[in-house]
Design a protein that fits this description.
The protein is of the alpha+beta class and 168 residues long. It contains four helices and seven strands, in the order E-H-H-E-E-E-H-E-H-E-E. The protein is 32% helix and 33% strand. A seven-stranded mixed β-sheet has the order 1-2-3-4-5-7-6, with helices on both faces. Strand 2 and strand 3 form a beta hairpin.
């Protein structure tokens, strides 16, 4: 799959943790009513992931248009041999949606996963209502395996877990 026109993709760069945290916090607060605990969790866990990043098992892709942060995705391989490799912090800013960036980022993360890296399964956690994202997940072979109501981040949501085997 070709990269959508106008975007550049990189790994970590200075300021990206703040930008990805801000995009998540603002979107999920205004669209879903998530409170400050969500922003804190994203910042803390993203910083921990990048601090312990291992290019042999983990992936991180940040998209920009010029200097503007457009979105990102991470593949956390720390639990690859037990629970599976985990898709995390997948988000595309509203101004950049509908241009193929989300599909491109998700495919990059899925293609990163190989059996040779000890990965057998890819999973992600999300919640009901993110219909565009769900269509992307299902288009890449992810299937819903669990759904449960939880109270988290100051909101009541239907938490969902999707799985996909590694490989075509």
């Amino acid at each position: 799959m070709e990269m959508p026109e106008g975007f550049t993709i990189s790994g970590y760069y200075p300021g990206v943790i703040g930008k990805m945290t801000e995009l998540h916090a603002v979107y999920y607060h205004f669209q879903w009513g998530f409170d400050m605990s969500f922003e804190i969790q994203v910042a803390r866990e993203a910083a921990d992931f990048l601090e312990n990043f291992n290019a042999k098992r983990d992936g991180f892709w940040a998209a920009r248009v010029g200097d503007a942060f457009a979105g990102c995705i991470a593949l956390d391989g720390r639990l690859r041999e037990t629970q599976g490799a985990r898709i995390r912090w997948f988000i595309v800013g509203p101004a950049f949606q509908g241009k193929g960036l989300g599909r491109f980022l998700l495919r990059k993360a899925v293609e990163f996963c190989t059996i040779e890296k000890g990965m057998r399964k890819i999973f992600l956690l999300t919640f009901r209502g993110l219909d565009l994202a769900r269509r992307l997940y299902e288009g890449e072979g992810f299937r819903l395996v669990e759904e449960q109501e939880i109270h988290h981040w100051g909101a009541k949501i239907l938490d969902q877990e999707f799985h996909r085997p590694v490989g075509p």
